[in-house]
Amino acid sequence: MSRVYNFSAGPAALPLEVLDTIREDIPDWQGTGMSVMEISHRSPEFVELAARAEANVRELLSIPDDYSVLFPQGGATMQMAMAPLNLARREQRADYVITGSWGKKAWKEAKKFCDAHVIADADDENFTYIPDESSWDRSDDAAYLHYTPNETIAGVEYHFIPESDVPLVADMSSTILSRPIDVSRFGVIYAGAQKNIGPAGITLVIVSNDLLDDAPADIPHLMTWRSYAESDSMTNTPPTFAWYVADQVFQWLKRQGGLVAMAEINERKAKKLYAAIDASPFYSNPVRKDARSWMNVPFILADDSLDKKFLEESKAEGLTNLKGHRSVGGMRASIYNAVSEEAVDALIQFMAEFERTNG
Ligand SMILES: *Cc1c(COP(=O)(O)O)cnc(C)c1O
Q1: pLDDT tier at 327 (50, 70, 90 boundaries)?
Q2: CB of 152 closer than 6 angstroms to any ligand 1 atom
Q3: Coil, helix or strand for 166?
Q4: Catalytic: which of 95, 115, 171, 214?
Q5: Is residue 102 annotated as a catalytic residue, yes or no?
Q6: Among 46, 80, 101, 308, which one is least packed by beta carbons within 10 Å?
């Protein structure tokens, strides 16, 4: 068997230990004589799995008791609609801070359902910074404030939680579980699974219970957070396999020492990769140093005619999915939890060698 170092932005690398467990579990899960995909979500075995997954994610993120943990389908993109649907009325204001493509997408979606208003936008400098909080043009009467703590494409991350008098709604798809966070500062946190949680097909939503009753009665049942909270996320048939894998990832994270340990590793991985980029005129990263992402590290080659060669040769060395997003160009290394420090070291070594032979 040969495994590559996978720097994919998403769906992204999963820990090998988790994949090994899945392979062993598939034909006969927990002595049931069935795979987890073939068993009822109402069976005692699956109900126990669901409860364990919730308990594990509560423990990892120290989620307060007055928050619900939901596992809907639909990905982060569906939450971009569910946030305004559950929290605002058509005439009502909602504030959006845009620091990248995902935040912009969230705002565009929200505009269909409420008076979504951009209070800060970093597009003027190509999404390479976070506008100073004091400059945000906040509305007095906003139902909530939405922002994107980590912008996956531009590689821009908030290393602080914004102040807010209204519920803070955060799309944490590409940063969730990379470090401890103070959940009590948020109204709603949502994340698609396929970066740091598990396979695509399941979504993690953490919502303050006092926001569950805000949904109007005339929106589809499946679009209300309350329906998931009241049914242990079994409003309809849930994505059972993805849920099972997510629980395996939560267990793996606990074995690594939890999020304090992960944060240490993630910070070290990111720092050494940025240091290698900054140390060389051959590579560069345009993001302001205080806003650089721990999870997604875009970098460009000074001579972009070498891009194709860089991608071919890195792939031949077992370093895959380094092509940057088409809107940014160049390269992007996504270094989520499951991407080991060894993988980052191998990338840094390859970059130095590529520079030596092509610089
Ligand atoms: C990947 C990503 C999304 C899209 O997630 P889906 O699960 O595909 O809907 C949204 N926001 C951010 C920040 C992302 O990284």
Answers
A1: confident
A2: yes
A3: coil
A4: 171
A5: yes
A6: 308
Per residue in 247-257, pLDDT (tens digit) is 999 999 999 99
User: Over the stretch 49-106, which tens digit does the pLDDT of each residue have?
Assistant: 999 999 999 999 999 999 999 999 999 999 999 999 999 999 999 999 999 999 999 9
Are 166 and 141 contacting, i.e. CB atoms less than 8 angstroms apart? no
The CATH fold assigned to 257-358 is Aspartate Aminotransferase, domain 1 (3.90.1150)
pTM of the full structure: 0.98
Domain coordinates in residue numbering, the chain = 17-255, 257-358
The residue behind tokens 């219970």 is 209
Q: What's the gap in Å between 173 CA and the centre of ligand 1? A: 6
Q: Ligand 1: which of 171, 173, 321, 336 to mutate, most ligand atoms within 8 Å of CB?
A: 173
Residue 204 has a pLDDT of 98
What's the pLDDT score for residue 328? 86
Q: Indicate the CATH number of 17-255 among 1.10.10.10, 3.40.640.10, 3.50.50.60, 3.40.50.720.
A: 3.40.640.10
Please indicate whether residue 243 is annotated as part of the active site: no
The Å distance, Cα 155 to ligand 1 centre, comes to 13
How many residues can be counted in the chain? Answer: 359
195 counts as catalytic: yes
- The pLDDT confidence band at residue 145, using thresholds 50, 70 and 90, is very high
For ligand 1, atom 10, the nearest C-alpha belongs to 76
**Beta strand 67-70 pairing with 203-208:** antiparallel
Reference 276, options 337, 346, 352, 354; nearest CA is: 352
3-state secondary structure of 155: coil
Of 102, 107, 243, 294, the active-site residue reads: 102
Instruction: Please report, rounded to a whole number, the percentage of residues in the chain having pLDDT higher than 70.
Output: 100
Q: Which residue minimizes the CA distance to atom 8 of ligand 1?
A: 75
